[in-house]
Amino acid sequence: GKRALILVATNLFPVESTVQTLRAQLTVVSIIMIILSIVLAWFLSRQVSRPIAQLNKSAKQLGQGDYSVNFHGKGYQEIEELSKTLNQTTKELAKNEALQKELVANVSHDLRTPLTLITGYAEMMQDYPEECSPENLQIIVDESQRLSSLVNDLLDLSKLQAGMHKPKLEYFSITELTKEIIERYAKFREHDQYHIWFEGTEDVFVYADPARISQVIYNLIGNAINYTGEDKKVLVRQTTTEDRVWIEIVDTGKG
Length: 255
Prior knowledge:
Layout: H1 13-63, H2 77-127, H3 134-155, H4 157-162, E1 170-173, H5 174-188, E2 195-199, E3 205-208, H6 210-227, E4 233-240, E5 245-251
Helix pairs in contact: 1-2, 2-3, 5-6
């Protein structure tokens, strides 16, 4: 019935050894995890930066005016969407560039026609004083005004490119308009022995923009005169169907 207490004492060296082992293992594991983290971060950064670098390279080509460049960005949704946007932008820029070139070519062609008529009539009146008539002077005035109108169209380039340039529609006689243009060319070509004549039996009225229609007829007749055959003949034929009128300019040249 007596109470007793037993004390057992021992050294703790094995516990300290275990702690040192765990500490060493933790250090090794930490170093391995840090190395793996660095490698993984480098790999992920390469995956992200590679398409961005490609986009940057393509963007530099686009900035130098190369509209044939294509943006390839894959791997991430945001980069793919950016690539699609840049490709669409490239197409629009290429289209705009083509429109500018076409516009400059067309305007150059349109400006050449009234300048040729003005120069031709002025030289004719200089060489033949008897040709200095009010009618010929009026043609020079009319062509100068038409030239001024074309220049105004050129200055209104932004509206033309944006498709905001609206035609000024009105009723007018396309037959009389065609005959007036032929008369100017015919008088101008008298000394070069060109033969330009009109075929049409009725006076046809249309609802259109007279300035734009005259541009077309001027250019087609001018081309026919420049490229007709040795007989120097140009036919302007007007034909009608139920609700349409056809203006044909026919020359005898090649093509």
